[in-house]
Amino acid sequence: MGLSFFNYVLLTVVYGSTYIIRRKTLKVRWYYYLLLAILDVEGNFSVVKAYQYTSLTSVMLLDCWTIPCVLLLIWLFIKTKYNIGQLIGVCICILGLVLVILSDVHAKDRSGGSNVLLGDALVIIGAILYAFTNVSEEFLIKNVDFLELMTFLGLFGSIISGIQVAILERKELANTSWNRDVILSFSGSDMQDRWGKST
């Protein structure tokens, strides 16, 4: 959640400053963005939490469950029509999902996770939340404003993830030995390699 928090803060700073400079008015009620941010933050949290319980392979494969969910939601709400080839592709994706779950259940000794069913369930929940978020964002980008979406997704996402970090990860953050390498790793920077070579 800590990394997600910084991503949402960056969204707010980058897009929010432009939004303020342009003095735009809000086109969608703020609570829609709050709901979207909740779905987005909890989708990220579910998928990241799943890594504790199941294998990396399962997380990566099951996360693809987002695709059939997005197709279903677009069909239901945006009324997009699909051809037979696309529907066959969705069926193959769903079959693959079932096979991955069955493989995890029957290969507990090889899966690399402490509770593969819980991990798989968390990934599927996260993928469904991602699907709702993706379809909502697509709708808002086409019908409202990209800048407004990114600003308020970042704002509410940073508030929600900040609260979650304070509640769920405060002990881990307090026990972390904060040094240059940890801070650079946390920021996603590769500067620690460069600094390490020069010192």
From TrEMBL:
Its main location: membrane. Belongs to the SLC35F solute transporter family. It is found in: Membrane. The lineage of its organism: Eukaryota, Viridiplantae, Streptophyta, Embryophyta, Tracheophyta. One of its GO terms (cellular component) is membrane. Pfam families: SLC35F. It is a multi-pass membrane protein. One of its GO terms (molecular function) is transmembrane transporter activity. InterPro entries: EmrE-like (IPR037185), SLC35_F1/F2/F6 (IPR009262), SLC35F_Transporter (IPR052221). This is Solute carrier family 35 member F1. The chain crosses the membrane at residues 60-78, 84-102, 114-133, 149-168. Coiled coil: none annotated. Keywords: Membrane, Transmembrane, Transmembrane helix, Transport.
